[in-house]
Design goal:
alpha+beta
Length: about 300
């Protein structure tokens, strides 16, 4: 594997600015992706990659040059291109008699391969075959995962996480109903088939406050078949999911909220001697001469009993 992580010292102000932009940040933006053509890609594979690239735009780059390499045997070219393009995700299309219409999706961590999953495109219907209105590029889609297989199979768990990384885009705090225009549906079956569908969300009048929702398929429509996988170890995957200390919310001790949202606080104080506690001096609280004489008698009796 080629060494691509070198220590570079900037010689100009512009070079320093470029290197600072490549350093890891506590809050990252949308993940960039590159799409490569592998060994002998078929026309179907090329169109499929192009359609996925259209869904990922503008956070993607499509490289039209053919590359004679096999990612599962040597991934140095992918690591080099991801380092050059500052991309964390990649997609590779290839075609052979043993593995026809092959698509490899993966991601990197510290410019090294983290996960790679190979999918076979059994059926494919391109965007151009759906003669209807499309959605604008760069819209944040609504991701829908159907079927219990996503949580039962370890390979499908990682594939679900990979799909989320591909189409998640930026993190948002709130969502406007009219802003939901695009939906991506992923349906997994027990035999390893994944059905990928893309819909345009239409909000129609319903005569009520809540609109009636309709889905119109806009493509692409792909039937994937799960093939080979190359997954990261549990330790490396855990390290890649580590949250920076700057982003973690600070926990405030002894502060809680009840069921009604009222903030409650607990205060810890030392032990107090109530009789010796200084209070406000008032005339009404002063002792009378008779009470003072009685207290002196009690003290004298106590001393006599102690000496006897």
């Amino acid at each position: 594997m080629a060494v691509i992580q070198r220590i570079k010292k900037p010689t100009t102000r512009k070079g320093k600015k470029v290197l600072l932009s490549k350093e890891p940040k506590p809050v990252e933006g949308p993940k960039q992706c590159i799409f490569l053509q592998g060994r002998n890609p078929s026309d179907k594979t090329r169109k499929l990659l192009k359609d996925v690239y259209e869904l990922k735009k503008p956070d993607a780059a499509f490289l039209s040059r053919k590359n004679d390499f096999v990612p599962f045997e040597d991934a140095s070219l992918i690591e080099k291109m991801c380092y050059k393009k500052e991309a964390a995700l990649f997609g590779v299309g290839s075609h052979s008699k043993k593995r026809p219409h092959n698509i490899i999706l993966g991601r990197t961590f510290n410019y090294g391969i983290l996960d790679m999953i190979e999918l076979g495109a059994d059926k494919f219907k391109a965007m151009s075959e759906f003669h209807n209105m499309k959605v604008l590029a760069g819209l944040k889609p609504c991701l829908i995962f159907n079927g219990p297989a996503w949580d039962l199979n370890q390979d499908l768990k990682r594939l679900k996480s990979l799909f989320i990384d591909f189409f998640h885009r930026e993190k948002v705090e709130s969502i406007r109903l009219q802003g939901l225009e695009h939906a991506l549906s992923f349906t997994a079956t027990e035999n390893g088939s994944i059905y990928f569908r893309s819909y345009r969300i239409l909000l129609k009048k319903s005569g009520q406050r809540t609109p009636r929702v309709e889905l119109e398929e806009i493509g692409p429509s792909i039937d994937f078949k799960l093939r080979r996988t190359k997954l990261a170890s549990d330790d490396l995957y855990k390290e890649s999911c580590k949250i920076p200390r700057e982003v973690k919310p600070l926990t405030k001790k002894n502060i809680s909220k009840d069921a009604f949202g009222t903030k409650l606080g607990r205060i810890h104080i030392g032990k107090q001697d109530i009789p010796r506690l200084q209070t406000r001096k008032m005339k009404g609280l002063k002792k009378t001469p008779e009470e003072k004489k009685l207290m002196l008698r009690k003290k004298k009796l106590a001393r006599k009993q102690a000496t006897a």
